[in-house]
Design goal:
The structure holds 2 protein chains of 2 kinds.
Chain A (H helix, E strand, L loop, with lengths): L2 H15 L36 H21 L9 H22 L7 E2 L15 E2 L3 H9 L17 H23 L9 H8 L11 H30 L2 H7 L6 E2 L9 H10 L4 E6 L2 E5 L7 H11 L5 H17 L1
Antiparallel strand pairs in A: 1-2, 4-5
Chain B lengths: L7 H18 L1 H28 L14 E3 L8 E2 L7 H10 L2 E3 L2 E2 L1 E3 L10 E5 L16 E5 L1 H17 L3 H18 L19 E5 L2 E2 L11 E4 L6 H10 L3 E4 L2 E4 L7 H18 L3 H20 L17 H28 L7 E3 H14 L4 H19 L7 E3 L4 H5 L8 H30 L5 H11 L8 H13 L5
Parallel strand pairs in B: 9-11
Antiparallel strand pairs in B: 1-3, 3-4, 5-7, 6-7, 8-10, 11-12, 13-14
Helix pairs in contact in B: 1-2, 4-5, 7-8, 9-10, 10-11, 11-13, 13-14, 13-15
The chains are: A mainly alpha, B mainly alpha.
Chain lengths: ~325, ~500
């Protein structure tokens, strides 16, 4: 791992542990699942929207809070831990996050997006949007929605391209969590597909197509959704990601399966031992009353065996030669 | 008189004893013996690996053996497959490369910088582990691998088989996604739900001795002297070869036609073989011969379906056909009629699905079985389930005072016991009675499963939902069957009085 990446992780970890001072994320409040208003309609864009709306700001704070909750579980800063086990577990979580992103987030009907996680790349032109691949980077994208001149990572009440991308990611994330819970046979109660469909009505493909009135109304609805998505995530965290039986596999403490030793490549020590033990080689009949000796060196690979056959017994079937050697070995063992 | 040094036999025996003493009783001897033992084992393994590379299927391999998964890496390492190796198909391929994993002695994949030395390997660009590597242009990263698609399929199916035996939810979820990816990107065509392979026999196992000149299903049902082996009916080509090699003929009109005759009635031959197999199933005196006969019937069916023949619907009629186009038209018409009849039957079967939440109803089960028997009369296993279950239902009704055929679930054990004919010692009847009901619904579930297995792709989504509502998609699904089992289990918990 490069030093630059380690520094980047440390910096991210530091930022995570410091709450965004001026704009603390709100505490989620409990809302009944079916208390949504109906889907949003229409709302053609009007120019010169006023900046810094409070409802939009509250929605952004919910987006940041959701991203922080997910990032905290991923805890990728442990990749730079001095404890190898912590490193391995963080790598496992990061990889499982990538598994979720590749197989669930990407196939969402509102696909997620990744921006360059480099904190220096704050201008939209530098962000190089790419296919969602790592959950930690998707969450980084979801957090950095503020004005770039003020450091990006806080809510500014303006629904621009960053906020819109963050909403796309929140939707894709919710969609992927619903599918994941289904695959794990986990019955989540906080959120369902009908809710997700409703959430879609407040996410425009392009934020420029919508006016401020529409955005404020949509933000009010989105806040409730984001709170419930976080609740659903916590259910999945308990039922899948941090369920002890599953966690051991996800974090790499337990392999799914182990194949036994006994690869075909003999170690130099084994080879030396074999040569010493079977220094006389094995007699193989190669014609009427004729035998040839095949040694350990001739048995180290298929190529060496073929060479021996060409020189000594071109008419013989290699499989049968090996069977003859194997039989002699068995006799030696029995003897 | 002779001296010791002149007796070679005695000297040999003394030397052998000394060596044995050395081996058994001295530390050095024991160490040497251990080394020899280890070397012998290592060389045997090496020989086995080489043999697998030469002949992946093995000379005398058990036909039902699963592929051997091993590795060609360092002999002292034991490769571990972890969650991170199933992040995606590329991650798995990378792991297969790094650990030199083999299937039947053949490497599944090689790195792009390696030479696979075989045309079976194709170059694929796959997405590796995401890791922390940042791509400059942020497009999807890919890496090249040489992969043998057939071996990769076998490896993935071996993992499915492993999960089927060792349930593990995270592995199941990750593996299913990898299989989907392999199907999409590599055209792997692997079933997402694992299906255990059908049991096979060795090619030389004789399944029947068949008459050389066949007549019809009735007169050619028994007898004959031409051996028919499993290998002969492995597929359509081997079957044709058997027909040709043994000059098998079938009566067409008033003459005997062989395979090289345009009027040759292949369907008629298959029908006769199928009836012979069924006859053997019904007359089998031990499990082994019954199993062999069932496999015989299955293989004949398989060849029939490769030829688009439907067996059993109108046995023997083919020998009355007149040949040529007329025969072919009649055949097509018959196939179309059969297909339309099957579609109607399938619909009727879904309409009469037998399990209910509130009761176990023998009348409904019988109605369902009646339709299943029409649709799957050529499946000996299903027919056997149906006939066994009928016997069990009769036995169950006989235990009740009124020959009951509907049993309310969820009622108290006392209410259930009041239905019994034996009111003096109802406790003696109670458990066998509940066990009978349990076996009956198990059998019903099995029959529904066979229906899904064979006709699942011919029903629409809402019909499929109804079917799975009965038995569940997965063993742990909440289904009507599982609710029935719960009710029966509650009765079984009733304390004996």
């Amino acid at each position: 791992m490069s030093q630059r990446l380690v520094d980047l992780i440390r910096k991210t970890a530091q930022e995570l542990s410091d709450p965004p001072g001026a704009n603390p994320a709100p505490k989620s409040t409990s809302i009944a699942p079916n208390s949504f208003v109906g889907p949003l309609q229409g709302g053609a864009a009007k120019p010169a929207a006023p900046r810094g709306n409070a409802t939009i700001k509250a929605m952004q704070q919910e987006l940041i809070h959701l991203a922080q909750t997910i990032t905290a579980q991923l805890n990728v800063q442990d990749l730079s831990s001095d404890d190898p086990r912590k490193q391995q577990e963080a790598a496992g979580r990061d990889s499982f996050g990538a598994f979720i992103t590749k197989h669930y987030l990407r196939s969402s009907d509102v696909p997620g997006v990744e921006f360059d996680p480099n904190p220096q790349k704050a201008q939209m032109a530098d962000k190089k949007p790419g296919m969602a691949t790592r959950l930690s980077v998707v969450m980084d994208t979801m957090k950095r929605i503020g004005n770039p001149t003020a450091g990006e990572q806080f809510a500014d009440g303006v629904w621009g391209p960053r906020t819109n991308a963050a909403l796309h990611n929140a939707y894709a994330f919710a969609s992927s969590m619903l599918k994941l819970s289904q695959d794990f046979n986990l019955n989540v109660r906080s959120y369902n597909n009908a809710d997700l469909k409703n959430f879609q009505t407040c996410i425009p493909e392009n934020e420029k197509d919508k006016d401020l009135t529409w955005k404020i109304e949509a933000a009010g609805l989105a806040i409730k959704h984001l709170q419930l998505i976080e609740k659903m995530y916590n259910e999945i965290k308990a039922g899948v990601l941090e369920k002890p039986q599953y966690r051991a596999y996800i974090e790499g403490d337990k392999p799914y399966l182990t194949y036994p030793k006994g690869g075909a490549n003999l170690t130099p020590q084994q080879l030396a031992n074999l040569k010493q033990t079977f220094s006389n080689g094995f007699n193989v009949p190669v014609g009427e009353n004729q035998t040839a000796v095949i040694g350990v060196d001739d048995l180290v690979s298929l190529d060496s065996l073929k060479e021996w056959i060409v020189k000594n017994a071109p008419q013989q079937d290699p499989y049968n030669i090996l069977t003859l050697v194997s039989n002699q070995l068995s006799q030696k063992k029995a003897g | 008189m002779s001296f010791i040094q002149q007796d070679q036999n005695l000297i040999d025996q003394l030397l052998k004893s000394a060596l044995e003493f050395e081996t058994k009783f001295t530390k050095q001897g024991q160490e040497a013996a251990n080394n020899t033992q280890q070397a012998t084992t290592a060389l045997q393994t090496q020989i086995k690996n080489l043999q697998d590379q030469i002949n992946p299927s093995g000379v005398a391999k058990d036909p039902n053996a699963t592929p051997t998964i091993s590795h060609a890496g360092d002999a002292s390492t034991a490769p571990e497959l972890k969650s991170e190796n199933l992040e995606g198909l590329g991650a798995l391929t990378s792991w297969l490369v790094n650990n030199a994993i083999t299937v039947d002695g053949q490497r599944v994949a090689y790195d792009i910088r390696q030479d696979p030395k075989s045309e079976n390997y194709q170059l694929y660009q796959l997405e590796p582990n995401a890791g922390l590597l940042e791509v400059q242009d942020r497009s999807k990263a890919t890496q090249g691998y040489f992969v043998d698609p057939a071996l990769l399929n076998k490896y993935l199916v071996s993992l499915q088989a492993y999960v089927a035996k060792n349930p593990n939810q995270p592995l199941q979820v990750q593996l299913t996604k990898i299989v989907q990816e392999a199907n999409k990107d590599l055209g792997a065509n692997i079933k997402e739900q694992y299906q255990a392979p059908e049991k096979a026999l060795s090619d030389n196992v004789v399944l029947d001795d068949v008459p050389k000149d066949l007549m019809d299903t009735r007169s050619s049902l028994i007898g004959g002297g031409v051996p028919l082996t499993y290998g002969d009916i492995k597929d359509d080509q081997t079957f044709n070869k058997w027909l040709n090699d043994h000059s098998i003929s079938i009566k067409v009109g008033d003459k005997q036609a062989m395979i090289n005759n345009p009027d040759f009635d292949k369907r008629g031959v298959l029908n006769i073989l199928f009836e012979r197999a069924r006859f053997k199933v019904s007359r089998a005196t031990d499990e082994e011969s019954k199993e062999k006969a069932t496999i015989y019937a299955r293989q004949v069916q398989s060849i029939a379906s490769q030829n688009n023949f439907h067996l059993g619907a109108n046995p023997g009629s083919s020998s009355d056909m007149q040949g040529g186009n007329q025969k072919s038209n009649q055949q097509n018409q018959q196939n179309q009629n059969t297909s339309a009849n099957s579609a109607n039957l399938i619909k009727e079967i879904v309409d009469t699905l037998p399990l209910a939440l509130q009761n176990i109803d023998f009348n409904r089960i019988r109605e369902f079985f009646g339709k299943m028997a029409q649709l799957m009369s050529n499946n000996p296993t299903v027919m056997s389930y149906i006939s066994n279950t009928e016997q069990l239902m009769q036995k169950t009704s006989a235990l009740t005072a009124n020959q009951d055929t509907v049993f309310q679930l969820g009622i108290s054990p006392e209410s259930l016991a009041r239905m019994f004919a034996d009111q003096k010692t109802p406790g003696k009847v109670f458990y066998p009675f509940v066990q009978l009901l349990d076996t009956i619904i198990d059998n019903v579930r099995a029959v529904i499963n066979y229906f899904v297995s064979q006709y699942g792709n011919q029903i629409n989504d809402s019909q499929r939902a109804l079917v799975y509502g009965q038995i569940g998609r997965r063993p742990d699904d909440s289904s009507i069957y599982s609710r029935n089992v719960e009710y029966l289990a509650n009765w079984m918990k009733t304390s004996h009085t």
